[in-house]
Amino acid sequence: MNKDLLTIYDLKRDDIEEIFQKADHLKQVREKGTTYQPLKGKILGMIFKKTSTRTRISFEVGMYQLGGNAIYLSSGDLQWERGESIADTAKVFSQYLDGILIRTFAHEEAEKLAVSADIPVINGLTDLLHPCQILSDIYTIRERLGDIKGVKIAYVGDGNNVANSWLLGASKMGMDIYIASPQGYQPNKKIVEKALLMAKDNGSGVEIMEDPYRCVKDADIIYTDVWVSMGKEEESEKRWEVFKDFQVNLDLIKRAKKSVLIMHCLPAHRGEEITSEVIDSERSIVFNQTENRLHVQKAILEMLIGR
After folding, report:
1. Domain span at residue 220?
2. Which of these, 70, 83, 149, 280, is most buried using a 10 Å CB contact count?
3. In this predicted model, what pLDDT tens digit does every residue of 68-88 receive, in sequence order?
4. Rounded to an integer, what distance in angstroms lies between the CA atom of residue 250 and that of residue 213?
């Protein structure tokens, strides 16, 4: 693997397979209750400019279980917010820490941090991409279905950072990714172009559309995310009107395979992008996704910080 994990695009398929194999091992270790601490004495600095539940807890717990420690740093804790350059911050962190996790708005901040840091930088979410989430999601599908080649993912909703990362992850791994979003709210065009190129090499299907019912036809997985991401709260009323026909409900999932599974990266706004009867149904593997964030991210931590 490269020094940093900022985007799935930069990973080789072999890198992803290695992450999954290591996650299998780490999951077995945890289930057996045995001690495995390859990161003993290592410290992860965690920069959070966006609030978090799953990302913060899973990375902190992951470092602890691997024998290391994590330091939480909110945006108000950093001189960065008072004018210190990202480059200087990265050089300082490199003297004290063994790795950096960043969860922020601008993807360029994560990139600048990685360029100047001598230690690994992990993207815990930016407005453009959310790689750790999608790696965990693909791992969850692999765990449930076995062979992921040709599995159809139907993503319904906002073409946000999660949708962008799904395009890269699915096309990299030979999965089919179909995204239904309203006009003006579709995924990043440059990322769509990258996904289409990778799809040709890996036998993936990639299509962007506006019809959620056509999108979910024959889908193995229906995936959704919130309509109003962090930083977009002032658009709430407008977005609710635009996305009202993109709700994942019983009527929509009837158009997919009878065996379709439901996924959501959480937090869920029940009654908006997804109904409670769907997210709480036997089809839902939402909380399997949540658990697997821990195992996959521990694998990433070990591979980047423990080498």
Report:
1. 133-289
2. 70
3. 999 999 888 888 878 899 999
4. 12
Q: What is the CB neighbour count within 10 angstroms for residue 56? A: 17
Q: Spell out the alpha helix ranges (H) of 225-285.
A: 236-243, 250-253, 276-279
Helices (H) and strands (E) in the chain — how many of each? Answer: 12, 9
State whether 267 and 182 are in the same domain.
Answer: yes
Is residue 301 situated within a structural domain?
Answer: yes
The rounded radius of gyration (Å) of the Cα atoms in the chain is 19
Same domain, 153 and 235: yes
Tally of domains in the chain = 2
Same domain, 80 and 204: no
37 DSSP assignment: -
CATH number at residue 122: 3.40.50.1370
143-197 tens-digit pLDDT: 999 999 999 999 999 999 999 999 999 999 999 999 999 999 999 999 999 999 9
3 found inside a domain: no
Beta strand pairing call for 176-180 and 121-125: unpaired
The structure's pTM equals 0.97
> What is the structure's pLDDT at 81?
79
Could you give the residue numbers annotated as active site? 103, 130, 133, 225, 265, 293
